[in-house]
Specification:
It contains 11 helices and 14 strands. It is an alpha+beta fold and about 400 residues long. Helix 8 crosses helix 9 and helix 8 runs antiparallel to helix 11.
Amino acid sequence: MSQADVSALRIEHGHTVSAIGIAARVAPGGFVGPDGSIDLDALREHVVGRVAGIPRLRQRLGGTRREPRWVDCPVDITAHVRTGTAATLADLLSARAPRSLPRDLPLWELVVAPGPGVAFVVLRIHHAIADGLNAIMLLVGLFDGTSPPGPARVVSVPQRRGWRTVASGIHRTAVTMWARTPPTALLGPLGPRVGIGFAEVDLVALARGAESRGVTVNDALLGAVAAGIDALLSALREAAPPSLRVSVPVALPRTGGSGNRVGVMLAELPLEVSDPDARLRTIAEQTIAAKTDARSRGSLELVRSRIGMRLLRVIAARQRLIAGFVTNVPGPPAALSLAGAPICSAWPISGLGGNVRLAVAALSYNGRLEVTVQVDADALPVGEFTGALQAELTRVSRRGPQ
């Protein structure tokens, strides 16, 4: 287990839960009846067969606290594939998201609930198993007609070497510890309840709208997050600062057997702007260079050692570097099914951590960009944020710059 994988275990404490995955709406077929009812035995039979080909889902934590490792073990499918009850997919996810995965079992779960003519599915794995990009690739291995894939390939950027590596590391560690983003309700101790919001937009339309403005889909997502923050702070009657900084993971080339290989890009989101297209251009000017810089620096220095990880855990609870997490992961381009039931929509699951009360995750699936919003429900109104984010994504999709 790499130090980066171990860090996903050690960062978990209090209301910080280190689990990622997919929340999906599943149409009738296979294990889902015409009325949304569930044949749990059929689903378990399918999943146990697929898990047989995915080694990491057949391993639990072993070793010692100081030197954890993966240990092969039998899989009790009844402990991992279970039913729940929920009126909506958001309700099912909000019930599961605050719960840590049991560490005496393989670190994953699949919870299904019957709905009105559909079924709801929440599939989570521990972040120690994989980062967002590899997690989606791994989970696809549970679906019909797919083979359990290997690690995702990422374009390599030359890493900094010698004195430049040391200088870069010192600089980034100093920024992590002492940089300050303006104080807002987005930062503070996390509560026990998670608010969930979903947004979606046609991916081709969004890509064309973004291109017509000279920006990328990821830039458009960041612009929509900025619009959501504007609306959220307005709903709280809190004055928006000129800008807020968010953390955006950047995939790095795979090394060894590590499931986690990400760099960190920091994006400054302009707020309270009169021209949203100008905001997009400002964001794009940053991200062009910032993504390459993040890949050249590699993973965060503080997750590369035990001492650094202990320090990061202390810093995370009080940090003022970022006000939110935003991630965008490429997903399956075509529709999938699970045990014979078509997957209508698949939203990514990320999570809240430290003192950051807002996380936004996007996934491309079957020609659409699916976006999940997670907030500390006791501190932030998820509806205002999600509504504004959806409106901005739709705006970029429907018309070119004025």
